[in-house]
Write a structure and sequence with these properties.
The chain is an alpha/beta fold. The protein has a single domain, classed as 3-Layer(aba) Sandwich (Rossmann fold), CATH 3.40.50. The chain has helices at about 15-20, 35-40, 65-75, 95-105, 110-115, 120-145, 155-165, 180-195, 200-215, 230-235, 240-250, 290, 295-315; strands at about 1-10, 30, 145-155, 170-175, 225-230. Bound molecules: zinc ion.
């Protein structure tokens, strides 16, 4: 049986860090943000901040792992990898998506299990999921890893993986939740850096929507295949958090999972920091929003996301807890 670990989160929630730590396990390899693969192959317009290289520093056509993955995929499926569209997103949401996402906290588990497929264009996503597993198979053949990590983050990609899961795969999900105020502050700085317009309302709603959708999907899997993790806990107590993930998913803990590393990585997408990490890079909690986020921004955030903020905090209390929370608010 092969294992696929999926990291689901809103943008700017630390998924690249978690992906990097987990994939330092000797039996694991990260494919990165698999949903970005077609973008990497076509190198379309994804904004100025995007880096199309594999973490090894080479383009996908020059990277030995990715060129062999493409060859294997094409041999197995008789389909050019370039023609496969991996970029699922908001266009695969059904009309009921928003209503079901909003209803997630109040729906009983059974109803969530029954209703969540109606939040998506299910057939289209299932077809995308079938291709995703064939790509993962081809990548796994090159890396010889038992466990593959896909940090595509989005609920649509997660739904595709759930709907198309072959019997040969165990799918395990980590729902990574970062405080929405920190996400907002980070997104605000990032857009300012590129001189792009920023909508606080839209960014807050996107954080709510992604987290609610992901939480709504958890009942489509067995409870033992799902864990909810706080980004703040991961940064403040990485060992405790990684150990709890290992325990939940029955992976033997390895101390290499506590250091960031670029060595031997052939993943795509994610934060540009992935090119700079070495074993000396410290995992620190970015708390700049505490002083940087204006009162007016905070008030708007609470007005839009207050209830979701409280509910997600409750949800992460059910997940792994650090022994203490020195800087938590
Ligand atoms: Zn590479």
């Amino acid at each position: 049986m092969n294992t696929l670990i999926y990291i689901a989160s809103a943008s700017r929630s630390g998924s690249t860090i978690l992906d990097n730590l987990l994939s330092n396990h000797p039996d694991a390899a990260s494919i990165g943000e698999l949903r970005q693969l077609s973008g990497h192959l076509r190198q379309g317009n994804a904004g100025r901040s995007w880096d199309w290289r594999c973490t090894c520093g080479l383009s996908l056509t020059d990277c030995p792992i990715w060129s062999a993955t493409a060859d294997t995929f094409e041999q197995n499926t008789k389909l050019p990898l370039r023609q496969v569209n991996t970029l699922t997103g908001r266009t695969e949401r059904a009309r009921l998506n928003f209503a079901l996402a909003c209803a997630t906290p109040i729906l009983p588990r059974k109803s969530r299990r029954r209703l969540m497929p109606y939040a998506y264009k299910a057939r289209k996503l299932e077809a995308a999921g079938v291709h995703a597993y064939r790509i993962i198979d081809a990548f796994r053949e090159q890396t010889n890893a038992k466990t593959i990590i896909d940090s595509s983050k989005t609920p649509e990609h997660l739904y595709a993986l759930i709907a198309a899961r072959p019997e040969t795969y165990t799918l395990r999900v980590i729902h990574l939740i970062r405080d929405g105020r920190a996400v907002l502050y980070s997104a605000m700085n990032r857009t300012a850096q590129y001189g792009a317009p920023f909508s606080l309302g839209r960014a807050t709603a996107a954080w709510c929507n992604t987290n609610l959708q992901v939480a709504g999907l958890r009942d489509l899997l067995a409870p033992s295949d799902w864990i909810t993790v706080r980004y703040e806990n991961l940064c403040q107590q990485p060992e405790n958090t990684i150990r709890q993930i290992c325990k939940a998913f029955q992976i033997p803990f390895d101390s290499r999972m506590l250091r960031l590393s670029r060595a031997g990585k052939h993943n795509i997408g994610g934060s540009p920091h992935r090119f700079n990490w070495s074993r000396d890079t410290k995992i620190t909690l970015d708390n700049r929003w505490h002083t940087g986020l204006k009162l007016s921004h905070r008030l708007s955030y609470y007005a839009i996301a207050g209830a979701v903020h409280v509910w997600l905090r409750h949800l992460t209390r059910l997940g792994p807890q650090p022994r203490k929370l020195p800087n938590s608010r």
